[in-house]
Structures are given as structure tokens and as C-alpha cells.
Amino acid sequence: MHKILVAFDGSEPSKRALQYVIDLFRDSARPLEIHVLNAQYGPVIYGDYFTSRMVEDVNEGLLTQANSVLDEAAILLSAAGVAHETHAALGNVAEQVNEAVKQLGCDTVVMGTRGLGSFGGLLLGSVANRVIHEVSVPVVLVK
Ligand SMILES: Nc1ncnc2c1ncn2[C@@H]1O[C@H](COP(=O)(O)OP(=O)(O)OP(=O)(O)O)[C@@H](O)[C@H]1O
Ligand SMILES: [Mg+2]
Predict the structure, then answer these.
(1) Ligand 1 shell residues, CB under 6 Å
(2) 3-state secondary structure (DSSP) of residue 105
(3) For the domain bounded by 6-99+110-119+134-142, which CATH number is listed?
(4) What would the DSSP string read from start to end of 76-93?
């Protein structure tokens, strides 16, 4: 384990996933490269009613939202003295996680089993489920 991608949505399980990585960072003899990703999936906008300016505005708002979630992760990592990079993405979360793994050359994904979703009965959220299917590297799921 060398380059880790943490999928972070600000939920309690994702904070525990982050803490898992912080503990790993402290205990690891090898230097770890930590990347944190938040993806925001906006409405699909098309047709003649929307100008490119409107689409840009929506995307800008989504990126602001992603960055404010990432700020939370960055504060926790910095407080623990863990060097890291944050990545704000637009689009389907699992696809963006997969894309980031490939682009950044990550060898492990760390994420929560559940996220911000409100349906309590689920064992595994839909993003976690899809990431397991999508990525080719090991995925650590933190409860
Ligand atoms: N928008 C996101 N950006 C980055 N990571 C995310 C995002 N949403 C979820 N995750 C990651 O996936 C983990 C599991 O969340 P998931 O969304 O699968 O569960 P849920 O919200 O409980 O269920 P669902 O979204 O299916 O209603 C989170 O702990 C987090 O690590
Ligand atoms: Mg969710």
C-alpha cells in the first residue's frame, strides 16, 4: 500500500475511513501518498433552454460544494500532520473514483460502507457497491 485514494463525502463512515488512513500513515514504515476525492453529481442539463453560462454556473456551484466537503477532510489530515492532495470532481462518484485511481496511479481505495444516504437498512451504500465493481485495485471498506 503506497498511494491511497480516500473517497470522502463528509459522512461519519467516511470520517472513520479517513481516521483509518491517518492511523495507517502513523504506523507505516513506508511513506504513503494520500489523495482525497469528493465528486458531485449534478443534474443533466441539455437542450435549448440552457445556455453554456448556466451550465458553467451549476458546475461551479457543485465544485464549491465538493471543495467545502474536502476542506473538512483537509483540516482533519493537516491536524494529524498528514500530507495529502484533495481532488474535486464532477460526475458519477464511482466513475470518478475509478478515473482518479487510474490517473493518479493509486493502489488502494479507502471508503465508508455507508455515506450520507438516509436509508438505514442498507449494509452497503450504492457508491461503495459500485466502486467495488468498478475499480481494479483493493478497496478497504470502513464501517
Ligand atoms: N460524493 C461522494 N464523493 C466521494 N466519496 C463518496 C461520495 N459519496 C459516497 N462516497 C464514499 O462512499 C462511501 C459509501 O457511501 P454510499 O453513498 O455508498 O452510502 P449511502 O450514502 O449510505 O447510500 P446511498 O448513497 O446509496 O443512498 C462513503 O462513506 C464515502 O467514502
Ligand atoms: Mg451516498
Answers:
(1) 7-9, 11, 13-14, 17, 37-39, 93, 111-112, 114-117, 119, 122, 125-128
(2) coil
(3) 3.40.50.620
(4) HHHHTT--EEEEEEES-H
**Short-list 89, 81, 69, CA closest to 31:** 81
Q: Which ligand lies nearest to the CA atom of residue 73 in the structure? A: 1
Cell numbers for 46, please give them. 441539455
Paired residues of 5 in beta bridges: 35, 109
- Predicted TM-score (pTM) above 0.85: yes
Cell of 23: 492511523
> Domain residue spans in the chain?
6-99+110-119+134-142
Residue 8's nearest CA partner among 100, 105, 79 is 100
Instruction: Report pLDDT digits (tens) over 14-36.
Output: 999 999 999 999 998 888 999 99
Helical spans, DSSP H, in the chain = 12-27, 52-79, 93-104, 126-134
Burial-class residue 75 by CB neighbours within 10 Å (0-12, 13-18, 19+). Answer: exposed
Query: In one letter, which amino acid is 131?
Result: V
